[in-house]
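Help needed: design a sequence for this.
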């Protein structure tokens, strides 16, 4: 088993799971410092009824498909773009809020970067301000990021890690 960030070997009998940026990953001891180490979840208890074991219900009945993946992504500096576009139209936050039927506090949190708008709100902002906040995701060839030592893809090969 390999670390999902750097590709170093991880002991299979005692893998370390860490929550990093909202995702739980199997990582090496060094990469576990980038997040919070997760304890193993308790094993589910099955209740026997009529000689059949009752298993937890699955939330999804259909298999994962490529269509489930998002095709657009919010641009990195969306908060600055929203503020600049609003100011270029000489609108106050109250004016923009009225135009898109949102509270002023929502506009303020978006412009300060404390809130990420969902797709519906992003589309409203794009239409009202006549700007582009969603960018199309290109089909990136992930094979160019394969780790040469192990021959496997890891997150560390693909992205830059932000250190706090």
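Sure. Designed sequence:
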């Amino acid at each position: 088993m390999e670390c999902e960030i750097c590709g170093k070997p991880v002991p299979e009998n005692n893998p370390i799971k860490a929550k990093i940026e909202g995702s739980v990953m199997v990582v090496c001891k060094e990469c576990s410092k980038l997040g919070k180490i997760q304890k193993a979840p308790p094993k589910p208890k099955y209740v026997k009824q009529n000689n059949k074991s009752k298993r937890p219900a699955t939330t999804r009945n259909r298999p994962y498909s490529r269509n489930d993946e998002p095709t657009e992504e919010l641009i990195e500096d969306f908060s600055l773009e929203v503020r600049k576009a609003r100011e270029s139209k000489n609108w106050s936050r109250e004016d923009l809020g009225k135009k898109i039927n949102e509270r002023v506090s929502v506009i303020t949190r978006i412009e300060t970067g404390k809130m990420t708008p969902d797709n519906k709100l992003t589309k409203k902002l794009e239409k009202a301000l006549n700007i582009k906040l969603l960018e199309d995701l290109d089909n990136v060839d992930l094979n160019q990021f394969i780790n040469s030592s192990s021959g496997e893809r890891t997150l560390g090969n693909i992205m830059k890690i932000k250190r706090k």
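The chain has two domains: 1-39+139-164, 72-136.
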